[in-house]
Amino acid sequence: MILVDYSQVALSAILTFQRELKGDESEVKNLIRHVVLSTLKSYKKKYGAEYGDIVIACDGRKYWRREVFSYYKAARKKNRDASDLDWGLIFDTLNDMRMEVAENFPYKVIHVERAEGDDIIATLAKHLQDNELIKEGIVEEPQKILILSSDKDFKQLQIYPNVRQWSPMQKKFLDASHREIMDYKIEHIVKGDAGDGVPNLLSPDDIFTREGERQRPISRKRLTEFLERGKDACRSEEERRNWDRNEQLVAFDKIPESVTSEIIDTYLNTTVNNDKMKIMNYLMENRCRLLLDEIEDF
User: Fold this and answer.
1) I need a labelling partner for 64 at 20 to 30 A (CA). Which of 70, 74, 239, 282 fits?
2) How confident is the model at residue 20 (pLDDT cuts 50, 70, 90)?
3) Domain 2-176+256-292: which CATH class?
4) pTM, whole model, 2 decimals?
5) How far apart (Å, rounded) are the C-alpha atoms in residues 47 and 44?
């Protein structure tokens, strides 16, 4: 199975055309559709024979992480407002495409309101360890899984030997040893994730909203202590509390069961369109005629 981090893969592809994204609205929409569909088709053609069908994991509108940590990804809107790109148009088009691809293309598109694409990919990678097994001789084994995303968080899923990750931005596989996986997870908990608004262990919840203030730095010596001893290296109740905060936000094994259950139910009840005429009609109606000659590659 090929698990696609929809927002990450789509944005990575279309942001290489930043000049064109500042043009006429209809042209921008057409560009986004063409680039995203071409990208999905290229991955299906390149990896489909080895890894099988594409499943597209999409972000919901409301994140469960924001329910438990109000500052989660709070600064992203501010950063995008400072950009000269029309992010409203970009995200509206990607959202429309999510529904259009689900209706017209031979891919399962999974969208759960409280889940992010990361949650969907992590949940399905775990689910497929014991379900939809393939036969190798007389033995049933988990199928191969390829994650398409540049997000290093997915290193956590390489604890499963059948999982690999391809980074569209770096254009390479992000392979990790067992030790690297364990160290990355702890380091991520300790350092947090500034891009997502998650502070490090030594900083308060709202540090990124405080004008002129920075996080308290974590020394190499302290990081080594955490890598060696995990949560036991915390020196105060506040640090232990912040460890729990960050672990819940960054560790895939902390996704709430209510979210994982809904993801699996949605996946199992999602059907796939296998009508090539629907693909053809969609490409013609949306001015993606250049893709018509390669319709068999979808």
Assistant:
1) 239
2) confident
3) alpha beta
4) 0.93
5) 5
Residue 216, C-beta contacts closer than 8 angstroms, at least 6 positions apart: 200, 202, 203
Residue 78 has pLDDT above 80, yes or no: no
Contact 186, 198 (CB under 8 A): no
**178-255 belongs to which CATH class?**
mainly alpha
The one-letter amino acid code at 213 reads E
Residue type, 76: R
Positions of CATH 1.10.150.20 in the chain: 178-255
pLDDT tens, position by position, 139-191: 899 999 999 999 999 999 999 999 999 999 999 999 999 899 999 999 999 99
| Both structure tokens of 101 | 């691809």
Q: Could you tell me how far CA 31 lies from the centroid of its own chain?
A: 22
Structure tokens at 277: 């005429």
Residue 127 burial (10 A CB sphere; 0-12, 13-18, 19+): middle
Q: Give 82 or 171, the one with higher predicted confidence.
A: 171
Residue type, 18: Q
Average pLDDT over residues 97-107: 95
Length of the chain: 298
Could you give the CA distance from residue 268 to residue 82 in angstroms, rounded to a whole number? 40
Kindly report, as residue ranges, where domains of CATH 3.40.50.1010 are found in the chain: 2-176+256-292
Q: What's the pLDDT score for residue 7? A: 94
**Tokens 């990124």 sit on residue:** 208
pLDDT at residue number 138:
83
User: b/e string for 17-36 if b means 16 or more Cβ within 10 A?
Assistant: eeeebeeeeeebbbbbbbbb
The Cα angle at residue 54 between residues 49 and 60, in degrees rounded to 5: 165
Could you give phi then psi for residue 58, rounded to 5 degrees?
-115, 150
- Tell me how far apart the alpha carbons of residues 85 and 55 are, in angstroms, rounded to a whole number: 29
* Cα(58)–Cα(115) distance, integer angstroms: 8
